[in-house]
């Protein structure tokens, strides 16, 4: 009898534990939807909530539908998708590598993308007009190609050394330093116009993406997010050590390499389209752990939502705080990310 009561108490406590985390995720969903509506309505031409909803539903005529569908909606959806993708990639890398500093930025993926963009402008003569790259497709392909080369090298070197977390992290840091040096060389040999284009590309701007590019990013990012969410319990088992994971029938080395490859693919694709956006993949998972802990089956979807919320909020502020000037969102995420990360380090709870 006592055993039955004890089991019921455990089940009740676990349900309460799960409901709290699910409630937090639902609150994030509501906040993200409200922020998206606010972001769609604010700008050079302010729209009311009714005008915004009318334009989205097709019941509103005039200038509002053109503003919403051609300008603001692609930007808002891109900000949400990019923030979600970078945040989940960071959360996955931190869980897989068991390192709180692991992120797409610290592993050198963003650095190699910057080198690829500079390489296309200086060596491949992608061309530029003022600070705008006049042949963005060549630059995008080059940035994606070089960043994905970094991901492949990290994975291949990891296989040679049995893919230990330390090997993958050190390889990423070394490659990041290498491509940073290459990026500096490209800047040194660039003329004034090319240098302006290179610097502008590295700022990060979600307003660059078109509907077609958004569709391509979604086709890669959404299935990848589903993959990480589905494997959350496996990552939880791996956090207890490789021996524990093996006792449960898992292959930690293979899962670590697969997860690193998919996280790198997400980052490479997103950065190649919107430029470098730092600290989202590093800070967001720590914020989620601060609120609901580090259990991956809740961490992944919560990081996805908070990443989209954080980047959308940063982009909304970037295009309104000194309007009509639109600041690159990558600048704001760095300004916000550094003090926030320091605060989390000082006041945060240890989850590793």
Write the CATH fold name: ABC transporter involved in vitamin B12 uptake, BtuC
Under the CATH scheme, which architecture would be assigned? Orthogonal Bundle
Low-confidence stretches: none
Distance between the termini: 38 Å
Radius of gyration based on Cα positions: 21 Å
Q: Count the DSSP helices.
A: 14
For the residues shown, what is the average pLDDT?
85
Could you characterize what this model shows?
This protein has about 350 residues and is mainly alpha-helical. The chain has a single domain, classed as ABC transporter involved in vitamin B12 uptake, BtuC, CATH 1.10.3470.10. The protein is built from 14 helices and two strands; from the N terminus they run ααααββαααααααααα. A hairpin with a 2-residue loop joins β1 and β2. The radius of gyration is 21 Å and the shape is globular. About 45% of the residues are buried.
Topology:
Blueprint: H1 2-41, H2 49-57, H3 63-97, H4 109-122, E1 128-129, E2 132-133, H5 136-160, H6 165-189, H7 192-203, H8 211-230, H9 232-238, H10 242-247, H11 252-274, H12 280-292, H13 296-318, H14 329-347
Antiparallel strand pairs: 1-2
List keywords for this structure.
352 residues, mainly alpha, ABC transporter involved in vitamin B12 uptake, BtuC, 14 helices, 77% helix, globular
Quick recap of the structure?
The longest helix has 40 residues, at 2-41. This protein has 352 residues and is mostly helical.
């Amino acid at each position: 009898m006592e055993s039955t009561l004890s089991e019921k108490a455990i089940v009740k406590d676990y349900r309460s534990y799960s409901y709290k985390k699910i409630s937090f995720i639902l609150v994030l969903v509501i906040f993200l939807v409200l922020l998206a509506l606010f972001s769609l309505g604010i700008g050079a031409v302010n729209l009311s909530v009714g005008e915004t909803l009318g334009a989205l539903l097709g019941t509103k005529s005039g200038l509002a539908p053109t503003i919403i569908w051609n300008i603001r909606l692609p930007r808002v959806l891109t900000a949400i998708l990019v923030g979600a993708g970078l945040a989940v990639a960071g959360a996955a890398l931190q869980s897989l590598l068991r390192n709180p500093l692991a992120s797409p930025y610290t592993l050198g993926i963003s650095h190699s993308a910057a080198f690829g963009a500079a390489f296309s402008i200086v060596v491949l003569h992608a061309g530029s007009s003022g600070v705008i790259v006049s042949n963005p497709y060549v630059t995008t392909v080059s940035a994606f190609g070089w960043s994905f080369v970094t991901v492949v090298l990290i994975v291949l070197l990891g296989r040679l050394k049995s893919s230990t977390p330390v090997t993958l992290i050190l390889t990423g840091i070394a490659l990041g330093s290498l491509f940073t040096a290459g990026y500096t060389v490209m800047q040194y040999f660039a003329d004034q116009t090319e240098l302006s284009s290179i610097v502008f590309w590295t700022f990060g701007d979600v307003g660059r993406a078109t509907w077609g590019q958004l569709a391509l990013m979604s086709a890669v990012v959404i299935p990848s997010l589903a993959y990480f969410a589905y494997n959350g319990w496996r990552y939880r088992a791996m956090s207890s050590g490789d021996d524990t994971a093996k006792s449960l029938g898992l292959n930690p080395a293979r899962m670590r390499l697969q997860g690193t490859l998919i996280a790198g693919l997400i980052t490479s694709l997103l950065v190649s389209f919107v430029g470098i956006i730092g600290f989202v993949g590093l800070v967001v998972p720590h914020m989620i752990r601060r609120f609901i802990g580090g259990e991956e089956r809740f961490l992944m979807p919560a990081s996805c939502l908070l990443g989209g919320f954080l980047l959308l909020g940063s982009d909304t502020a970037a295009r309104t705080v000194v309007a009509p000037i639109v600041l690159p969102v990558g600048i704001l995420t760095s300004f916000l990310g550094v003090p926030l990360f320091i605060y989390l380090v000082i006041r945060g709870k240890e989850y590793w």
